[in-house]
Amino acid sequence: MTLLLNILWFVIGGGAVAGLAWLVTALLLALTVVGVPFAVAAARIAVFAAFPFGRTLVDAHIVGERRIPGTSLANLLWIILAGWWLWLAHVIAGIGYCVTIIGIPFGFAHFRLAAVCFAPLGRRAVPVG
User: Which segments of 51-118 does DSSP mark as H helices, in order?
Assistant: First the structure.
């Protein structure tokens, strides 16, 4: 079921566009030295945005990684640089998909992506279950 939802998401649910938006954000941020950590986080989220079903995002310390000092401050800077615009796009898409009964799972996926728009640094995608 997860594979089917991911395929439908990628083709008609906005997965290709969402993944591309996060990837373009990553590429733009990678153009500057200061933006490289943000670019790495955005590229990580781009893969999750393309195929979100069957996985969830958790803090890095939950999977055994050390959290880098200053991540919270960096996430605040991220909101100003890119998070706001990605959040707005995911919320609008989520509302649009939730208007139809068939689109509700896709709308919820956009809302999950909207939530990560405010703090992508220090997040890892892990399988659910």
Answer: 71-78, 84-98, 104-116
Q: Classify residue 59 as left (phi > 0), alpha (psi -120 to 50) or beta.
A: beta
Across the 129 residues of the chain, what is the mean pLDDT of every consecutive 10-residue run?
Answer: 89 88 90 86 90 88 78 83 87 94 91 88 84
**Rounded-to-integer distance, Cα 24 and Cα 1, Å:** 29
- Radius of gyration of the CA atoms of the chain, in A: 14
Inter-residue contact 58 to 90 (CB < 8 Å): no
Question: Is the pTM of the predicted complex or chain greater than 0.70?
Answer: yes
Supply 49's token pair. 């945005």
DSSP state at residue 62: G
- Rounded to whole angstroms, the Cα distance separating 25 from 28 reads 5
User: How many other CB atoms are found less than 10 A from the CB of residue 95?
Assistant: 12
Q: What angle do CA 38, 95, 106 make, to 5 degrees?
A: 70
